[in-house]
């Protein structure tokens, strides 16, 4: 088991190295002079030269890459061109709301989607099955920002149950946190629930036709035991894969959701950096997002061996 975990962790290194190369070349291979892009059209030659010297753009490409990677390994993500603030500090100030809402979204999505998928497979071709499939189609079809504004209209403006915008950290109290984070998490959950429920249903339908399911029922096992202990456990590996793959949708949805609900997270930071052409912040956000995506998929891969011990071999 330890060897399996070590091999999977080592496989992450070349992936992150390729991501680092891409992020590094993102600015360097942009058409035109990177210093001119950063400084703007009204910059003087002296200002352009100072920017090139400050960013090391006048050095060979391999030297620039080695210097940049060395700073990354020390936790130096660069300095914002707009606010002149270390990027690591900016990310540290903004990552709390994003992680809180992302974790709440995952918990809500799995808690809703897995029972929905199991119910749809158990009651195949029934009203419950058609209802789950209809929700899945709508969840994929409607954009996230439309769902967010719809929830604001219904739950905030009409019913007055939740605030329209804003964020309160968990330190302010669980009630205040959930009051502000519930609607953004519910908005993100719509796509995630649709994806997981659809995959759960498909895999459960396949597993429920196996011989060992019929044997368990013939032995008189309760239907709940058959569904969750025998069927769901054997269908869990593809479902976990979808949860990991769906994390990419979650990353993209956070950017839109934080803008709609005015949440000071990394999604808003990314949008502001793109609009301001703040390249150090953009590079740091791409690198951080890629690392989180690879980390989640690594954890999903390691969890496979819990449900199917044959995978570790």
Task: Describe what this molecule looks like in 3D.
Helices cover 77% and strands 0% of the residues. The longest helix is centred in the middle third of the chain and has 36 residues. It is globular, with a radius of gyration of 24 Å. It is a multi-pass membrane protein.
Quick synopsis:
This protein has two domains: 2-73, no CATH class; 96-264, MetI-like (MetI-like fold, Orthogonal Bundle), CATH 1.10.3720. It contains 15 helices and no strands. The protein has helices at residues 2-10, 12-28, 34-39, 45-55, 61-73, 87-122, 127-141, 144-158, 174-207, 211-218, 223-234, 236-245, 247-260, 266-276, 279-307.
Descriptive keywords:
2 domains, transmembrane helix, membrane, 313 residues, globular, 15 helices, MetI-like fold, Peptide ABC transporter, mainly alpha
Class from helix and strand fractions: mainly alpha
Largest sheet, in brief, is: none
Q: What's the helix count?
A: 15
Give start-end ranges of low-pLDDT stretches.
Answer: none
InterPro entries: BPD_transp_1_N, MetI-like, MetI-like_sf
Protein name: Peptide ABC transporter
Pfam families: BPD_transp_1, BPD_transp_1_N
Family: Belongs to the binding-protein-dependent transport system permease family.
